[in-house]
Here is the input.
Amino acid sequence: MLIEMKVFGLAVDPITNTPIVILKDMQEKSALPIWIGLFEASAIATQLEKIRLSRPMTHDLMSEMLRVLDVKVKKIVINDLKNDTFFAIIHFIKDDTDVMVDSRPSDAIAIALRAEAPIYVDEKVIEKSTDISFSAKQGDINTYTKDQLKEFLENLSPEDFGKYKM
Here is the structure.
C-alpha cells in the first residue's frame, strides 16, 4: 500500500552535518527521515523557498526539459529500502504512456516538488525504516542509536527547520 507524504522540512544531522529531508504522512502521524547529499538538499530547499536562480540548476533544467517535451511527472514512489539505502521510482506520462524511471529519493523529491507531483512511500519502506541500523558501527562515532534517532525526530519542532519549513 502506498502512503502519500509531503516534505515536512529539511534538517541537519547535528552529529554528521549531513542534510536530512523529513517526509510526513498527510495526517502527520508518521515521519520518514532520509539522509541526503548537500546538493540535493540545496535543490529541495530552493524549491521549498521558491528561489529562482539566474541559471537553471540540474533539477530545474530537468523540469524544463520535461515541460518542453510535454512529459508530466505523475508521482514519485519511494519503493524500497535495502542496506540502509532508499530507492525511488519517478512515474512519468507522455502521450498517455506511463514510463517509470529508477531514481535516488532525493532527486525524485526535488523533481516532484518542481512538478507539484505527489510523493508516495510504500508502507513496507516505513516498516523497514524502523529497523534501519542506527547503532554505531565499530569506529564510527557519527551514527545515532535507534533511541537517539527516535528522540531527535520526536523533538523536532517547526522552528528546527529554519527557513526550510513547510
User: Anything to note?
Assistant: The chain has one domain: 2-164. The longest strand covers residues 2-12. The beta strands are 2-12, 19-25, 31-35, 72-82, 85-94, 97-103, 119-122.
